[in-house]
Amino acid sequence: MIKVLFVCLGNICRSPLAEGILRQQAFLDNQAIECDSAGTSTYHIGELPDERAQHIAQKNNMILTHRARQIQREDFEKFDYIIAMDRSVYQNILSYKTRVSNATETNIMLMRNFDDIKGVLDVFDPYYGTPKDFEEMQVVLSRCIKNFLQFLKE
Ligand code: 4NP
Questions:
Q1: Which of 6, 7, 12, 52 for a ligand 1 pocket mutation test, highest count of atoms within 8 Å of Cβ?
Q2: Does residue 122 carry a catalytic annotation?
Protein backbone atom coordinates (compact mmCIF):
# COMPACT_ATOMS: atom_id res chain seq x y z
CA MET A 1 0.00 0.00 0.00
CA ILE A 2 1.26 3.48 -0.85
CA LYS A 3 2.05 5.55 2.22
CA VAL A 4 1.81 9.34 2.23
CA LEU A 5 2.86 11.86 4.88
CA PHE A 6 1.74 15.50 4.72
CA VAL A 7 3.93 18.01 6.51
CA CYS A 8 3.40 21.64 7.54
CA LEU A 9 4.82 23.80 10.33
CA GLY A 10 2.46 23.26 13.25
CA ASN A 11 0.57 20.12 12.15
CA ILE A 12 -2.71 21.67 13.30
CA CYS A 13 -4.02 23.46 10.18
CA ARG A 14 -2.83 22.48 6.71
CA SER A 15 -1.40 18.97 7.01
CA PRO A 16 -4.15 17.40 9.19
CA LEU A 17 -6.76 18.78 6.79
CA ALA A 18 -4.77 17.41 3.82
CA GLU A 19 -4.63 14.04 5.58
CA GLY A 20 -8.41 14.08 6.07
CA ILE A 21 -9.06 15.07 2.46
CA LEU A 22 -6.77 12.37 1.07
CA ARG A 23 -8.41 9.75 3.27
CA GLN A 24 -11.87 10.85 2.12
CA GLN A 25 -11.01 11.09 -1.58
CA ALA A 26 -9.11 7.78 -1.60
CA PHE A 27 -12.04 6.08 0.14
CA LEU A 28 -14.55 7.47 -2.35
CA ASP A 29 -12.29 6.42 -5.21
CA ASN A 30 -11.55 2.96 -3.81
CA GLN A 31 -7.79 3.62 -3.63
CA ALA A 32 -5.94 1.91 -0.78
CA ILE A 33 -3.60 4.54 0.64
CA GLU A 34 -2.18 4.96 4.11
CA CYS A 35 -1.76 8.54 5.22
CA ASP A 36 -0.56 10.56 8.18
CA SER A 37 0.61 14.10 8.89
CA ALA A 38 3.33 15.81 10.90
CA GLY A 39 4.86 19.21 11.59
CA THR A 40 8.42 20.46 11.42
CA SER A 41 7.99 22.36 14.71
CA THR A 42 7.32 21.23 18.26
CA TYR A 43 4.82 24.06 18.94
CA HIS A 44 1.58 22.07 19.12
CA ILE A 45 2.62 18.47 19.81
CA GLY A 46 -0.28 16.41 21.14
CA GLU A 47 -2.97 18.91 20.15
CA LEU A 48 -6.03 18.28 18.01
CA PRO A 49 -6.30 20.34 14.79
CA ASP A 50 -7.06 24.05 15.08
CA GLU A 51 -10.80 24.65 15.60
CA ARG A 52 -11.02 26.52 12.33
CA ALA A 53 -9.55 23.52 10.48
CA GLN A 54 -11.96 21.21 12.30
CA HIS A 55 -14.85 23.47 11.33
CA ILE A 56 -13.97 23.43 7.64
CA ALA A 57 -13.46 19.66 7.82
CA GLN A 58 -16.90 19.11 9.34
CA LYS A 59 -18.48 21.30 6.67
CA ASN A 60 -16.98 18.85 4.17
CA ASN A 61 -18.06 15.68 5.98
CA MET A 62 -14.78 14.87 7.69
CA ILE A 63 -13.85 14.52 11.33
CA LEU A 64 -10.19 15.17 12.15
CA THR A 65 -8.87 13.17 15.08
CA HIS A 66 -5.16 13.55 14.39
CA ARG A 67 -2.89 14.64 17.25
CA ALA A 68 -0.03 16.91 16.23
CA ARG A 69 3.41 15.36 16.12
CA GLN A 70 6.83 16.34 14.85
CA ILE A 71 8.36 14.68 11.80
CA GLN A 72 10.89 12.00 12.83
CA ARG A 73 13.71 9.99 11.28
CA GLU A 74 11.58 6.86 10.85
CA ASP A 75 9.20 8.77 8.57
CA PHE A 76 11.85 8.71 5.81
CA GLU A 77 11.91 4.91 5.96
CA LYS A 78 8.18 4.44 6.25
CA PHE A 79 6.57 6.82 3.72
CA ASP A 80 6.71 6.63 -0.08
CA TYR A 81 5.72 10.29 -0.40
CA ILE A 82 6.40 13.14 1.99
CA ILE A 83 4.50 16.20 0.81
CA ALA A 84 5.41 19.64 2.12
CA MET A 85 2.85 22.43 2.29
CA ASP A 86 5.26 25.25 1.44
CA ARG A 87 8.83 25.87 0.35
CA SER A 88 10.07 26.67 3.84
CA VAL A 89 8.71 23.37 5.18
CA TYR A 90 10.18 21.59 2.13
CA GLN A 91 13.66 23.03 2.78
CA ASN A 92 13.43 22.16 6.48
CA ILE A 93 12.47 18.56 5.67
CA LEU A 94 15.42 18.23 3.26
CA SER A 95 17.94 19.65 5.69
CA TYR A 96 16.58 17.52 8.52
CA LYS A 97 16.81 14.44 6.32
CA THR A 98 20.47 15.09 5.46
CA ARG A 99 21.20 15.05 9.18
CA VAL A 100 19.24 11.95 10.19
CA SER A 101 18.51 9.57 7.30
CA ASN A 102 20.11 7.92 4.27
CA ALA A 103 16.77 6.62 2.98
CA THR A 104 16.67 6.85 -0.80
CA GLU A 105 13.18 5.66 -1.64
CA THR A 106 11.15 8.52 -0.18
CA ASN A 107 9.87 11.14 -2.60
CA ILE A 108 9.85 14.54 -0.95
CA MET A 109 7.59 16.87 -2.89
CA LEU A 110 5.76 20.19 -2.73
CA MET A 111 1.95 20.04 -2.49
CA ARG A 112 1.46 22.80 -5.05
CA ASN A 113 3.40 20.78 -7.63
CA PHE A 114 0.12 18.94 -8.04
CA ASP A 115 -1.95 22.07 -8.58
CA ASP A 116 -3.27 22.53 -12.10
CA ILE A 117 -3.57 26.27 -11.47
CA LYS A 118 0.08 27.21 -11.80
CA GLY A 119 2.03 30.11 -10.36
CA VAL A 120 1.68 29.74 -6.60
CA LEU A 121 4.17 27.39 -4.92
CA ASP A 122 2.99 27.50 -1.31
CA VAL A 123 -0.18 26.44 0.45
CA PHE A 124 -0.72 29.66 2.38
CA ASP A 125 -0.24 29.31 6.15
CA PRO A 126 -3.68 30.27 7.51
CA TYR A 127 -2.77 30.29 11.21
CA TYR A 128 -2.84 34.07 11.51
CA GLY A 129 -5.42 34.36 8.76
CA THR A 130 -9.21 34.67 8.46
CA PRO A 131 -11.98 32.03 8.12
CA LYS A 132 -11.89 32.82 4.40
CA ASP A 133 -8.24 31.74 4.31
CA PHE A 134 -9.30 28.39 5.76
CA GLU A 135 -12.01 28.05 3.10
CA GLU A 136 -9.46 28.78 0.39
CA MET A 137 -6.98 26.33 1.90
CA GLN A 138 -9.60 23.59 1.71
CA VAL A 139 -10.26 24.33 -1.97
CA VAL A 140 -6.54 24.35 -2.83
CA LEU A 141 -5.85 21.14 -0.90
CA SER A 142 -8.81 19.31 -2.47
CA ARG A 143 -7.69 20.30 -5.95
CA CYS A 144 -4.05 19.29 -5.39
CA ILE A 145 -4.97 16.00 -3.73
CA LYS A 146 -7.34 15.06 -6.54
CA ASN A 147 -4.44 15.54 -8.97
CA PHE A 148 -2.05 13.69 -6.65
CA LEU A 149 -4.37 10.65 -6.61
CA GLN A 150 -4.52 10.77 -10.39
CA PHE A 151 -0.70 10.98 -10.48
CA LEU A 152 -0.49 7.85 -8.30
CA LYS A 153 -2.68 5.95 -10.75
CA GLU A 154 -0.55 6.81 -13.79
P1 4NP B 1 0.09 24.81 10.08
O2 4NP B 1 -0.25 26.25 10.66
O3 4NP B 1 1.59 24.78 9.84
O4 4NP B 1 -0.69 24.76 8.83
O5 4NP B 1 -0.36 23.81 11.13
C6 4NP B 1 0.44 26.81 11.74
C7 4NP B 1 0.09 26.46 13.04
C8 4NP B 1 0.75 27.03 14.10
C9 4NP B 1 1.74 27.96 13.88
C10 4NP B 1 2.11 28.30 12.58
C11 4NP B 1 1.45 27.73 11.52
N12 4NP B 1 2.40 28.57 14.99
O13 4NP B 1 3.24 29.45 14.75
O14 4NP B 1 2.12 28.22 16.15
A1: 12
A2: no
Q: Is 57 exposed, middle or buried (0-12, 13-18, 19+ CB in 10 A)?
A: buried
DSSP letter (8 states) at residue 36: E
Residue 99 annotated as catalytic: no
pTM for the structure as a whole = 0.98
8 in catalytic set: yes
Task: Find out whether 56 and 138 touch, Cβ atoms under 8 Å.
Answer: yes
CATH class of the domain comprising 2-153 = alpha beta
Q: How many residues does the chain have?
A: 154
DSSP 78-142: H-SEEEESSHHHHHHHHHHHHHH----SPEEEEGGGG-SS-S--S----TTS-HHHHHHHHHHHH
pLDDT tens digits for 100-134?
999 999 999 999 999 999 999 999 999 999 999 99
R_g of the chain computed on alpha carbons: 14
For 14-28, letters b (16+ CB in 10 Å) and e give: bbbbbbbbbbbbbee
